Amino acid sequence: MSTFHDKVIYQAYPKSFKDTSSNGIGDLNGIKEKLPYLADLGIDMLWLNPFYKSPQNDNGYDVADYTSIDPIFGTWDDFDGLISEANSYGIDLMLDMVLNHTSTEHEWFQKALAGDKKYQDYYILRELQEDGSLPTNWESKFGGKAWSKFGDTDKYYLHLYDVTQADLNWRNPEVREELYKVVNFWLEKGVKGLRFDVINVIGKDEILEDAEDGVGKSHYTDTPIVHDYIQELNKETFGRYEDIVTVGEMSSTTVENGVKYSNPERNELSMIFSFHHLKVDYKDGEKWSIMPFDFIELKKILHEWQEGMVEGGGWNALFWNNHDQPRANSRFGDVENYPVETSTMLAQTIHLLRGTPYIYQGEEIGMTNPNYEDLDEYVDIETHNAYKKMREDGISHDEAMAIIKEKSRDNSRTPMQWDDSKNAGFSDAEPWLKVADNYKNINTENTDVSQAIRDYYKTLIRLRKDIPIIQEGSYDVLELEHPSIFAYVREYEGEKLLVLNHFYGEDDTITIPDELLNMDASYLIGNGSERKLEKEFKLGPYETAAFLLK
Ligand code: GLC
């Protein structure tokens, strides 16, 4: 059961990792070229975002052909070379399965548009309501309404994301069968990990109706049938193998459902991504707003998910960053004054928790938000939609830009900073998205800031492999209400691991309970000076420290 509990997964965003074909877009050969770098970090699995044929309206999450490679990323030979070379370094591949929707350029959608009834039933098509309003009042997650006109028919198709991402009809068994074929195709290629994109929204209600809140999430999120579909997916595909690691991306889910999705006894998934901890700087739940993050809320959410998953036998994916999130160090720390402390403290906070840590490219060298000044510098469709909406809502250009600077998904999609040469060593052509200005100081060859952070990550990865308590230990919190420190205790076979993480720039103190002080403590790892555990334990700016207690 615990075969994957010692693993660490690295996410590379192919478009921005390394370009070897001089088209300004990263490619599979670029990933292959950098395998020694990844092997040196010590990671076990490499998650790649979609590189299948796609019009790239949503950077590949609009898939036009599931079993193909988009020529911008390379060829089949490149893929075969990548997987076998990765394996020779002991690194397995995890691929992104985008099974909730296809691109409207997908053959299925095109056939449906041409009038083929079989393929029309692959999507979710409805007529207008009697009063002439859209089939339901649901909103698209990328702004606007979730329905668009289906060709020149009188029907509308559902798209929970962009208008070019049509939701598939999972109630149709033929659709499910086709999708299972896709998953099996990649498993047969030797892929050992699967990340299922927005998988908890595949089960729309049977009868689609207006939502009271005008948004609609409850009509398609975590519906009971999603669990049936995932069990079937498991049985028909990866469940036939012994060693496949799966993670479901869960939009707005609950701990209760998280347990169901990831408790091994239910034969669903190995683990899940949940996002509540990354909404603690949304003002009144609105992403496109600026608010200092709510630390107590952040801790409560991490705590609730740790505790709930221990109790229910579920498993969390642990992460701060991915291709949809602004950089966590820019968000929860001080990258100007304490770049090393910020990045190492954030890393330690999650790497020593119960679950599987994910590292998003560049966080291991302290990459930050790029702080673009110009709207044109952003490529992301969600960002452009949000800008339009904010302007319509009366927000000034300057304010909208300030918000985008903090919240855009492009913050994390900037090219990987390999060195201090032109384009940060990412490409010798103009990159598809501008490189962050700080690449001369933050890059994989920098021996100061970036190297210190990277060395720390390497140690954290190694510790997870060496110390069973990190893999299997229980979880308990200390002083949940402490205003600046997140402290927790893991326990396994009579030993404890105490982890103290300070999220602010001034010194602060936490009182260590006698029960822990009475044990034999040894300093395990920290980003400050090595010292003894004492009753009133003082932490410096963004300091983190962990002790093993016997
Ligand atoms: C997931 C992906 C995101 C994409 C969306 C729609 O949230 O991570 O990048 O835009 O799904 O596929």
UniProtKB/TrEMBL annotation:
Does this UniProt record's set of keywords contain Hydrolase? yes
CDD domains in UniProt: AmyAc_SI_OligoGlu_DGase
Q: What is its EC number?
A: 3.2.1.93
InterPro entries cross-referenced by the UniProt entry = GH, GH13_cat_dom, Glyco_hydro_b, O16G_dom_2, SusG-like_C, Trehalose_TreC
Acetylation is among the record's keywords:
no
Pfam families, A to Z: Alpha-amylase, SusG_C
Its keywords, alphabetically, are: Glycosidase, Hydrolase
The Glycosyl hydrolase family 13 catalytic domain is annotated at 11-413
Record NCBIfam families: PRK10933.1, trehalose_treC
Q: Which family does it belong to?
A: Belongs to the glycosyl hydrolase 13 family.
List the protein's name.
Alpha,alpha-phosphotrehalase
Tell me the classification of the organism that encodes this protein: Bacteria, Bacillati, Bacillota, Bacilli, Lactobacillales
